[in-house]
């Protein structure tokens, strides 16, 4: 797990300049010391989490996807969502009953937004120590994904855990 440079800079007392933090992160010699300083633990990196989020958004809309019977629409879904559509089919039991937008661009935005909301719910559901380690990958707490949707706060963590287990 690589922390965001702003988080690393703030971890020092007094804080170090952002440019110094960026250079430390770029030098492999300092990785073990940075991990010890920040207690990085074994958490997925931000890139992995954001990829899982996109897949989770597709799972949320899974029930709409499996109801679709028009071949051209299914082909478009497969082209836009790729392997995330397979995840949606495999985990349809975790999907919600909200209807997916029919416009392809609106659908892509809805899936991405729902996925980030699932990620936010998963992060919020973590034990405090692990949540803190995951949060280090964003510049500050305000930059973390957020959600207030009660249904996503329930389903999101379950979807992310299931997707992680299936890898």
Task: Describe the fold and architecture.
This protein has 167 residues and is mostly helical. It is built from ten helices and no strands. Helix 1 (5-11) packs across helix 2 (18-26), helix 4 (46-60) packs across helix 10 and helix 8 crosses helix 10. The radius of gyration is 18 Å and the shape is elongated.
Could you name the key traits of this structure?
2 domains, single chain, mainly alpha, 10 helices, 167 residues
* Sequence stretches where pLDDT stays below 50 over 5 or more residues: none
What value does the Rg take, in angstroms? 18 Å
Structural class: mainly alpha
Based on the structure, what is the oligomeric state of the protein chains? single chain
Distance between the termini: 18 Å
Brief overview:
By secondary structure, the chain is mainly alpha-helical. Helix content is about 65%, strand content about 0%.
Detail the topology: elements first, then pairings.
Blueprint: H1 5-11, H2 18-26, H3 31-38, H4 46-60, H5 62-67, H6 71-81, H7 83-90, H8 104-125, H9 128-135, H10 150-165
